[in-house]
Amino acid sequence: MKKLKPHCPGSCIGSFLRFTCFGNSAIYDGFNCESESTLCCTPVEHIEKYEEHLQSGKPLVLMKPMKIPKEKNSNMYVTNISVTQEVTRRPGMYVCGIKGNQRRKSGRVVGGKTSMPGEWCWQVALINAKNQYLCGGALIGSRWVLTAAHCITALVRNGDAIYVRVGDYDLASQYGTPGAQTQKVSTSYIHHNHNGQTLDNDIALLRLENPCAAARKRLFGLPASQGAESHPGKRCTVTGYGYMDESGPIALKVREATLPIVEEKRCTEQINKVTEKRFILPAGSFCAGANQENDACQGDGGGPLTCVNEGYHELTGLVSWGFGCGKENVPGVYVKVSSYIGWINQIISVNN
Fold this sequence. Notes:
Elements: E1 11-14, E2 25-27, E3 38-43, H1 44-56, E4 123-128, E5 133-141, E6 144-147, H2 153-158, E7 162-166, E8 181-190, E9 204-208, E10 235-240, E11 255-262, H3 264-272, E12 285-289, E13 304-309, E14 312-321, E15 331-336, H4 341-351
Antiparallel strand pairs: 1-3, 2-3, 4-5, 4-7, 5-6, 6-9, 7-8, 8-9, 10-11, 10-13, 11-12, 12-15, 13-14, 14-15
């Protein structure tokens, strides 16, 4: 006998509107909607309660269906982004900031295999009002996302809305990842010295309209000090939804690539070989990659590059630019997050 799903305690919306499930609500296929063409958009608390019910077998008590998903008080939760928080790890589950213990081949952003769902849970997607994917980003607090400035300059200039998709491993899926949320950006802070031609200071900070409930479970840290360096040769991981190859197609699933940090002089020499102009690496940037196997690619811009520090992943860089994808001896250029710690902390402290 087929088990009936409980009625959606939130709002049933058309599948083409799934990215409009805002605030602390998410699309969930464990609840039933009368029309097969609609999806259930419900507060995350109902999803968590229902999944606890499935595991425990206890009676389920949900609120009556409502026409509009509830939005939580905007001051209910703010993450201190400077301190890594401790999270109890459940057996068999991935914990943000700590890689899972399942052995598998290393994937890559250019080609290769996709990551595991929830493995890189600080990875977010920037989308526009037409539900079109724009760039990647890194969730650094319950209301704050870091991305590359070049990803949003045109949108900000035109006054267009920007949305952030949080916790969605597969953007092409009809239902999306369970528990994923879409948050509207209330304010965009592009670095005051950003140069759109040279891509110097290619960093932007986004403030979300509502706090992201998923951030409670995240383990993620920023560099501890201004200007902290990552040693050349250190292997770090870049993630993103972008192209699987220089000519496409775009993955729309989170992929990963393990890359070495490249020494500044070597990076400058290698990039000068493929550009007609003399290249000088900006002080707020660094290089990584330079092999054919692993690299970031188009569509990965603004996405995080993390390095393991004392057992935890630390946000070291943001994908900025490069010449092609996965070219031998041509490293990619990344924003050095440690160079902007003061700028980040100042904006957050004033606007929290």
